[in-house]
Specification:
six-stranded mixed β-sheet, two-stranded antiparallel ribbon, alpha/beta, elongated
Length: 561
């Protein structure tokens, strides 16, 4: 059979849920003969860039999406809270979730607006309201309603009448393409992931003339990574691993042949033949084909995006911005008493030429304006990092130190030989950083300003410590496993991956790890260096000590910038 496209797949950027890097998902898709793949991380699109870069490298067409929680239409029955028998804590997750796919650049914009709206409702988990959907959903979006969606949950409860009633508001949303998601994950019964529910979903789709698509609700790239998914579930829910509720092991990036078999099983369970299975696969392929967002043309991947020159005082365009930057830099040179220093003038001229060649003039003007505004607020501000080695930054007042006095190289910060963008790190007073945010937004407008976050990551030992906290592994076995893993070593990555798999396997079987236990396949997300890693390695709070300061003892110190 031909290729298959997974329309529902998450990576480690789904906090404590996804168990594979975006790059690994794309690589496996290419190896298994798939020409397209969707990334639908939970609550965020932070993995989209790495996903798109990997897709371009491997020749896989990227489909951009997101998995968001939605407020229920029907009131949920009140449930009495019970204390967890084996310890842990109550973590309330929104019960109903949907998948959104962007069909076009306009659809991507709508998807991003909906994501922002979901995060704007208080301090709880991100949650879409129906007001958000009516305001931002529309043409260019595909909506997948799967086992976690409210209508399909009603179907699982044996209420097809209620499911049909709950589908009506989705059908009335203008402009969207609505699909029902048929998904079999090997579970028994009639609940989410069961064959019966997958078949009932297909039947309901046929009755209501709604397209049905086949997905596998992918959480990991390879079948043997399901143990890591169990560890992530325990960390997310703040409770020990429960052998009664382990991952089924089916939510991996299956190839076209396996998904074809799944389609035939679902069709047979619904009372149909291979022709219905073929139509299910065809509808899935058509839905994938409708999503045509190009990461380069539509999203601008690989191109620098700076504020327009007019925003920083140069309405005449890029050439005007270059002249304005030179005027400000030369004025700063005089102000700092360096105008008669031939070395300083030569250094400034060389840097301005590099900036003009790369057309980064408006970027430097923007940062200079931000620093000036911060100082006007009476807030202490200073540049750090490689940006302090620039004479232009020194003359614009961004950096305090004269780079010539300390033999600082500008090439470490910016060079025509480097493809990466410059990065000027600015430190401000932590207690007043919100004032800085407000001033920047006031100056440049909400359409040009975004607040970003940098998650901290673990080195090998601390990456092992937190899965142990949520396991039934004996303390002696845990200490032996962690002490055998070096903190900083060229082999730390391999050792950490092998040790984590060795820990996770006995956890699932409720027995301690023995020295001779096989390590199994390498698991992603554990490295000894402070590289930006997947979300499964972000801080995992412990029920016993939620503010354990030792958890990030070897993580990079936090700076406000």
């Amino acid at each position: 059979m031909g290729g298959f496209t997974h329309l529902n797949a998450v990576s480690g950027f789904s906090t404590r849920f996804g168990a594979a890097h975006p790059e690994q998902l794309v690589q496996r898709a290419a190896e298994r003969g798939m020409t397209a793949l969707a990334l639908t991380d939970r609550d965020a699109v932070t993995g989209a860039v790495r996903f798109a870069q990997a897709a371009l490298e491997h020749g896989v067409r990227p489909i951009f999406g997101i998995n968001l929680a939605v407020a229920p239409l029907a009131p949920a029955p009140a449930q009495r809270r019970r204390t967890p028998v084996r310890g842990g804590a109550h973590v309330d997750e929104p019960p109903h979730r949907i998948v959104l796919l962007a069909q076009s650049a306009a659809g991507w914009a709508r998807l991003c607006r909906l994501t922002s709206a979901a995060h704007a409702h208080g301090d709880g988990p991100p949650l879409l309201t129906w007001d958000d959907l009516h305001q931002h959903a529309g043409e260019g979006l595909t909506v997948l309603l799967g086992p976690a969606a409210e209508p399909v949950r009603a179907l699982a409860a044996g209420r097809p009448d209620l499911a049909e009633h709950l589908l009506a508001p989705w059908q009335q949303l203008p402009g969207i393409q609505l699909c029902l998601e048929s998904c079999w994950l090997g579970h028994a019964g009639t609940g989410p992931g069961s064959l019966r529910l997958a078949a009932r979903t297909l039947t309901l789709a046929d009755q209501l003339r709604i397209p049905a698509v086949l997905t596998n609700a992918v959480r990991y790239a390879d079948a043997d990574q399901h143990r890591l998914a169990d560890v992530l579930d325990a960390a997310r829910l703040l409770r020990p691993i429960d052998r009664r509720h382990l991952d089924s092991g089916e939510r991996w990036l299956k190839g076209p042949a396996a998904m074809g078999d799944t389609a035939r099983r679902i069709a047979a369970a619904a009372g149909h033949g291979d022709d219905r299975a073929a139509r299910l696969l065809a509808d899935t392929a058509a839905t994938a084909e409708a999503c045509t967002v190009d990461p380069v043309e539509d999203l601008g991947l690989g191109r620098p995006h700076f504020p327009e020159p007019a925003v920083v005082g140069a309405p005449g365009g890029p050439a005007h911005a270059a002249r304005l930057l030179r005027e400000k830099a030369e004025a700063g040179l005089i102000r700092r008493g360096l105008d008669r220093d031939p070395h300083a003038r030569q250094r400034l001229e060389e840097e301005l030429e590099v900036i003009r060649t790369l057309q980064y003039d408006s970027y430097f003007l923007t940062v200079a304006q931000v620093v000036e505004d911060v100082r006007e607020l009476g807030i202490r501000v200073a540049a750090r990092g490689s940006g302090a080695g620039s004479m232009v930054n020194h003359t614009l007042g961004i950096a305090t130190a004269n780079p010539l006095d300390f033999n600082l190289l500008m090439e470490r910060f910016l060079s025509v030989r480097r493809a990466s963008l410059p990065d000027i790190d600015i430190d401000v007073e932590s207690a007043r950083r919100l004032e800085v945010y407000d001033r920047i937004i006031e100056r440049f407008g909400t359409e040009r300003v975004a607040v970003t976050g940098m998650p901290e990551t673990y080195r090998a030992r601390h990456a092992l410590r937190f899965p142990v906290k949520f396991s039934v592994l004996k303390r002696t076995a845990a200490i032996r496993c962690m002490s055998s893993t070096p903190c900083i070593s060229s082999v730390a990555t391999t050792a950490a991956r092998a040790a984590t798999t060795a820990v996770a396997a006995p956890i699932a079987q409720n027995r301690p790890a023995a020295p001779g236990d096989p390590a199994g396949a390498a698991t992603p997300g554990i490295r000894p260096d402070h590289v930006f890693l997947d979300a499964e390695l972000r801080c995992w709070p412990s029920p016993a000590s939620p503010a354990d300061s030792s958890a990030t003892a070897d993580s990079p110190h936090e700076m406000t910038s």
